[in-house]
Specification:
Elements: H1 9-17, H2 20-39, H3 45-69, H4 75-94, H5 100-124, H6 132-151, H7 157-190
Helix pairs in contact: 1-7, 2-3, 2-7, 3-4, 4-5, 5-6, 6-7
Pfam families: DUF308 (PF03729)
Keywords: Membrane, Transmembrane, Transmembrane helix
Protein name: HdeD family acid-resistance protein
Length: about 190
């Protein structure tokens, strides 16, 4: 359903849609991480720390670049999420031998922070973006994962790996859907349609 956009929303949507590729890259990275986590059935917590650390660094870097290149007043939130992702990834990547509980808590708090920012973004820009439901749903998914992981850090390693892998794949799909909707809007409006 296409609803008319407020005139003030058009410059915001134009700026966001011009950078749809960064959102697509984040979605692809999330799906790759999820598939790798499923593909290694003997994955240990140490290996999960390394794989997740690499994913968090890549995702954080994409968010940082998007925030630095994107326009608008909300670019600081992408920079903040990017910094959190890179720091959490570096901690998990360079200290993977730490206890599993610390890794679980890092993943949980990272998911909570990313989810809250995505929900706020979806609510604030619901009239200006073509994909508020996808971003909001991915934010809710992140918050749910983060809350579960923080509340149950002692969950079995295998169930935690499957939970995180499932989250990553669903999150990635939602980010790809959102990016393709932004791309479609950008292509339609850059041609003057």
């Amino acid at each position: 359903m296409n609803r008319p956009l407020p005139p003030a929303a058009l410059p915001i949507l134009s700026s966001l849609s011009a950078h749809w590729g960064w959102l697509l890259a984040r979605g692809i990275a999330a799906i790759l991480f999820g598939v790798l986590a499923y593909a290694w059935p003997g994955l240990t917590v140490l290996t999960l720390a390394l794989v997740w650390g690499a994913y968090a660094i890549v995702d954080g870097a994409f968010a940082l670049i998007y925030g630095a290149r994107g326009g608008g007043s909300r670019r600081w939130s992408y920079v903040f999420v990017g910094v959190i992702g890179v720091i959490a990834g570096l901690v998990a990547f360079f200290w993977p031998g730490e206890t599993a509980i610390i890794l679980v808590m890092i993943i949980g708090f990272w998911a909570l922070a990313v989810g809250v920012f995505e929900i706020v973004y979806a609510i604030q820009y619901r009239h200006a973006i073509a994909h508020p439901w996808a971003v909001g749903l991915s934010g809710l998914l992140s918050v749910a994962l983060g809350f579960f992981v923080v509340m149950h850090p002692g969950a079995g390693a295998l169930s935690l790996i499957w939970l995180i892998a499932s989250f990553a794949i669903l999150y990635g799909i939602l980010m790809i859907v959102a990016s393709l909707q932004l791309r479609r809007w950008h292509n339609a409006h850059s041609r003057g349609v």
